[in-house]
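Review form for a predicted model. The reviewer records the input and the model, then writes brief findings.
Reviewer: anonymous (R2)
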Amino acid sequence: MSRFTPETIERVREAANIVEIVSAHTDLRKQGVRYVGLCPFHDERTPSFSVKPDEGFYYCFGCEAGGDTIRFVQE
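Model under review:
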C-alpha cells in the first residue's frame, strides 16, 4: 500500500521547480522556452538534454531518459 495519495504526489510535482532541481546536477542554459545542457545520466560532449519548465518535463535525445521532476530524482 502506498504511503502517499495521488493528490499528495501531484501537489509535490506542481510545487517543485524542475529547472532548480536539475540545475543541482548539471548546468543548464536557457534556449527559448526551454533549458538545455549536458545529460546527467550519460557522458556526452554536446548538449542533448532538454528541460521544459512550463510542462515540468525533461528529455534526453541521447539516452532517451525522460519524465517529470519526481522521475528525475528517482533516476
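Findings: The chain has three helices and five strands.
Further findings: The first helix runs from residue 6 to 15.
Recommendation: see findings above.
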